Amino acid sequence: MIPESKKIAVKNALQTALGVDNYDSIQPITIGLSNALTFRIVIKNKPYLMKIARTDELSATENHFAYMKAGAEMGIAPHVWCLSTEDKILITDFIEAKPFPINKAIEVMPKLISSLHKLPPFHKTINYLDSMDGIVQRVLSAKFLPSNLTYEILKNYNLIKSVYPNNPEDFVSCHNDLKPENYIFDGERAWLIDWEAAFLNDRYVDLAVVGNFVVNNEDDEFQYLKNYFGEAPNKYIQARFFLMQQLLHVFYTSIFIMYASKSVPIKIDNAKSNFRDFHKHMWEGEIDLSKDENKLQYALVHMNQFLSNINIKRFQNSLHIISEN
Question: What percent of the chain lies above the pLDDT cut of 70?
Answer without folding.
Answer: 93
